[in-house]
Design brief:
Layout (H helix, E strand, L loop, with lengths): L3 H5 L5 E5 L14 H19 L7 E5 L12 H7 L2 E5 L7
Parallel strand pairs: 1-2
Antiparallel strand pairs: 1-3
């Protein structure tokens, strides 16, 4: 919610990245961490689109599962940090 005003000030594309910890996941809804991380990213994309009215053409979702941790998965606290969603604002063209 706190980024809504920022996102509405420009027309750049926004990529939502979903991540998990390295604990294996297996449920009917999320058979692996791939599905869980994609589900996280898609939920944020839908929220930005449906609730915050960010144009769909600006949004995309990417799933990384447990393969891009911020910190080692060696404690409960670190695993919690790795269960996250990143929002990337894409700057296109014009650079050298």
């Amino acid at each position: 919610d706190s980024l809504e005003d920022l996102f509405l000030q420009f027309e750049n594309k926004i990529v939502v990245e979903g991540h998990t910890d390295d604990v294996p996941m297996s449920s009917a809804m999320y058979p692996s961490n791939w599905e869980l991380s994609s589900g996280r990213a898609i939920q944020v994309v839908r929220y930005l689109s449906e609730v915050k009215s960010i144009p769909n053409s600006r949004l995309s979702a990417v799933a990384y599962g447990e393969y891009r941790p911020m910190v080692p998965n060696d404690s409960a606290e670190n695993r919690a940090l790795n269960r996250r969603v990143n929002l990337l604002i894409i700057m296109e063209g014009g650079g050298k």
